[in-house]
Specification:
single chain, about 220 residues, alpha/beta, Rossmann fold, 3-stranded parallel β-sheet, two-stranded antiparallel sheet, 7 helices
Length: about 220
């Protein structure tokens, strides 16, 4: 006994619809995979060549460059990355008696995908040798982490001027969450506990002291 033609046609339409939906899902997954492989936002993950030797866990900051590290790092392209004894991608700090300008920020300052001698801080150092230029940028930091890092480094670098480089694309978001691009965890300020106010007060006291030193010059 054979099924009526309309019943057979109905089964074929259902099977065709299921196969079409499966094909759409597969195509969507393939496109999503290709897009994620191209943009790859997870640039702090250790699978990037050299990243696991550049950054290490830091209880206060979330992550921080390994002091005295010297490795090749592959982002969009491969570059050489050297960090000094303070963990900064910069030359070794000196004690020459001259005014100090410190730049803090994220990958724009650190120099993601840029060789060290091509960054703006190196170009600026060559143009104003009478000033000490300090590059204190760290990849993927929010301004909250940058403030904490500045306070940590203050007594070591004693800046007269601090320049904050802000990334309007993601800094605001970075300051409101405790993780970065689904990868490393980071701290954030709890405004209800007054921690930010205390931290900001400490920073302002240091800034005022720096202004007095600058006036003496």
């Amino acid at each position: 006994m054979t099924a009526p033609p309309e019943q057979t046609g109905g089964k074929r339409r259902i099977l065709r619809a299921v196969l079409v939906q499966i094909a759409i899902v597969i195509a969507t997954l393939v496109v999503a995979e290709l897009v994620l492989r191209v943009i790859d936002l997870r640039y702090l993950r250790a699978h990037r060549v050299g990243a696991d030797r550049i950054y290490s866990y830091d209880a206060e900051l979330g992550w921080f460059p390994v002091p005295n590290s010297d490795v090749s790092f592959t982002g969009i392209r491969t570059i050489r990355v050297r960090h000094n004894s303070l963990g900064l991608r910069d030359i070794e700090p000196d004690t020459a008696p001259k005014p100090t300008i410190a730049f803090i920020g994220d990958s724009f300052v650190w120099g993601y995908d840029a060789e060290q001698n091509a960054r703006f801080t190196e170009l600026l150092r060559a143009r104003i040798p009478e000033q000490r230029i300090v590059n204190a940028g760290v990849t993927a930091y929010g301004t909250d982490q940058e403030l904490l890092l500045l306070l940590r480094l203050w007594d070591r670098i004693k800046p007269d001027v601090v320049v904050l480089i802000v990334c309007v694309d993601n800094d605001r978001k970075d300051n409101t969450v405790n993780t970065r691009q689904d990868g490393p965890y980071k701290p954030y300020f709890d405004l209800s506990q007054g921690a930010f106010a205390r931290c900001l007060r400490s920073a302002l006291e240091r800034v005022v002291g720096g202004l007095w030193r600058l006036a003496d010059h």
